[in-house]
Amino acid sequence: MLIGAPVMEHNKHSSNALPHLTLVRTGSSTFQSPSEDGNFTDDVVALVQKEIGGDLKSLKKVSGLLEQLTLENKQLEEQVLTVSSSVPLRVSAALSTAEESRVKLESLLEKERLLSNTLQQHLQGAQVWADSIGQVLAQLDTLERHMKYLQCLARIEELSDFEEVLTQFHWPFISPPTQTLSPPANVQELNSQLELLVSQLLSLQTSDDLISEKRETPSRPGQSQTPPLSLPIQIMLLPLSKRFRYHFTGNRQTNNLSKPEWFLTQVLIWMGNSSNFMDEKIQPILDRAGAKVNVELCRGLLTLAQEKLAQDTPLLLYDDALFCHLVDEVLQFEKELRSTHSYPRAYPGVLHILLEETVFQKWLSVERKMAVEKVDAMLSAEGAWSSQYKDITDVDELKAPDCAETFMTLLLVITERYRALPCPRAQLSFLALQKELVDDFRIRLTQVMKEESRQPLSPRYCAILNAANYISTVLSDWGDNVFFLQLQQAAVSVGEEILGPLGATETGRLASLEGSLFEALLALLERLRGDMLGRLLDAVMRDVKEKAQPYCKDRWISLPSQSDQATMSLSSSACPMMLCLRDHLLQLQQMLCLPLFQMFWQGLAERLNSFIYGDLILYNHFNEGGAAQLQYDMTRNLFPLFGHYCKRPENFFKHVKEACIILTLKVGPALLLCDMLKQSEEEEGILNHQQPSPESALNELGVYKLAPSDVQILLNLRSAWLNQS
What we know:
It contains 27 helices and two strands. It is mainly alpha-helical and 725 residues long. The protein is elongated. This is RAD50-interacting protein 1. Keywords: Coiled coil.
C-alpha cells in the first residue's frame, strides 16, 4: 500500500501538469491543445496508455516523458516569440506590395478602357469596309462557282462531238433546204452517232443535279408553264440564237423598232426550214428515248421572239402608230404559228406579251381611239347611207347602208383580233369595248334619225332604219355563236369585274343560256327600230287617210245594186287611196330590207283594218249595192295589194272581211241572225242546250273575230233596206 501511494500521487501530479500543454509532437504523433479539442482527458489517457500501458514497471518512463515534453514546450515558446517579433515587418511589406499592385492595376484598367474605346471607334469605322469587302468576297465566290461551272461545261463540250455531227447534216438550215445538197457518204454512221448523242444528252438532263438546278419561269397572264428545253435542242439553238442576236440587237440596221415583222418573219422562216430535219431526224429519236417533248425547236425559237418583244414593246407605248403596227404583226405571227406550223394551243405563243397590264390597257385605249375615228369617218362619208350592193338583189337582202356594214366589219375585225387571246378576262374587256362602241353608234343613229324625222319616207330615214335592223340582226347571230357563248359562261364567273354588276336575274339567264351578252343592246336597238317604224307607219297612214276621205264619205246607202250593173269596178273615190297604198308599198319595198318591210306592211294592214272598219264601215249605213261595192273594193282591190307579200292577205283584215260578210248577207239569213242575237241577249245567263250559241252561228258564217255585239251593230247599219223588205 505504501509503495502504491507515491505512484498514484505522481500520476496525479502528472495529470495536473498535462493540461498546460498546447501542442506536443513526438515522432510522428501530434497532440492537439484543449482549445482545439474538448476531449483532452481522453487524449492524455490514450497517451499514457500508449507510453506506459498497464505495466507498473513502465512507470519509470514518466520522468523521461515529462522532460521531453517540457523541452518541447520550451522550444515552442521560443518559436512563438521569434515569430511574433518578425510578423509585423512581413505584414507591412505585404501591405506595401499590395498597395503598389492596386495602383498598377488601376493604371492598367484605365489603359484598357482607353484602348477599348479606341478599338470600338476603329471597328465602327471599319464596318463599312468590312461589309463592302464581304460583298466583294461573295461576288468573288459566285464568280468562282460560275467559272467552275463554265469550265465543267467547256469540258463537257470537249467530250461531245454532237455539234460536229450536226454540221455534217448541214445544220443550221438558214435557207430552205434544197435537193442539190447530197447526203453525207457515211449517213448511216452519222445517224447512229446522232441517236447515241441525243440519248446521252437526254440522260444527262434527267440527272438529279440538273433537275435541282431548274428554274421556274414567272408566269404571265394567259401564259402556262412549259417544261425546259431538252439539252439537244438547246445545243441546236446556239447557232440560230447567235444569228438572231447579231441581227436584231445593238445598232444593226435590222434591229428596227418600226419593223417587228423582220425578226418575227425570220423566226417563222427558221421554223419552216428546219421542220423536215426535226421531223425526220430528231423527233423520232426523242420519241424512242421516251422524252415527252414536241415541237421543241419551235419552242426554242419562240423564246427568242418572246424576249425581243418583251424588250421592244415598252419602248413603243408612246407612239400609237408603231404600237398598232406591232400589235398587228404579233397577231399575224400568232395566227401563222398556230395554223401553218401547227404549234399546240397548250403552249404559250407571244400573245401574253400583249396581256401585260400596261401594254394591254394601251392596246384597249388605241383600239377605242381608232374605232371612234373610223366611225366618225364612215358617218361623214358621201355614200354613208347608201348600200354598195343596192343593184344586186340576191346579195342586198338586209339593204344595210355602207356606214352600218363598215361598222359591223370593224367590230368583226376587233373580234378576230382578240379571239385568240388566252385570257378570258382580256376577251371580256374587248367585249365591253365592243358593246360601248355599239351603244355609241346607236346614239349616233338616233341623232341622225331625229334630224330626218320630218321626212320619214326619205331614203336616208329608211337607211337609218335598215342600219339599226342590220346591227340588231348581226348581234342576235353573234349571241348564238360558240365563241360568244363561251364568253357568256366566262362572264358569269368573272364578268362583273369587267362588264359591271350583273343582277341575279341577268346572271341566271346568262348561266342558263336563255339570254345573251348583247341582250341589253338588242333591247335598245329594238326600241329604236320600233320607234322609227311607228313614225314611218304614221306618215303613210296620214297620207292614206287624207286620200281616203272621199271614199269614207261616199253615199254607201244609195249605191245601185249589183244586178243593176253590168260589171263591178273599183269605186272611183277609192282610187286615190289605192294608188297611194300601192305607191308607198312599192317605194318602201325598195328602200326597206325584207324583214322590216314585212313588219311594215303587216303593221300597215293592221292600221288599215282598224281605219276602214272604224272610220268607214261603222261611220256609214249600207244598202245592198253599197255593201256589195264595199266587199268588191276590199276583196278585189285592197286585199290583192297585199297579196304580193302573203298568200292570204284577208287574214290581216279580219274586221273588214267579217264586216263585209255581215253586210252582204241575204235578207233571210240576216233576219234570222238578228233574231237569234236579240234572243240570246234577252236570255243571257239562261242555259239552253237546244239553242246554238251566237258564236257557233257566227262561226258557220265565217265570222270569228267579231263579237255578237259588234255583229248587231253591223246589222243595224243595213236597217234601211231591212225595213224595206
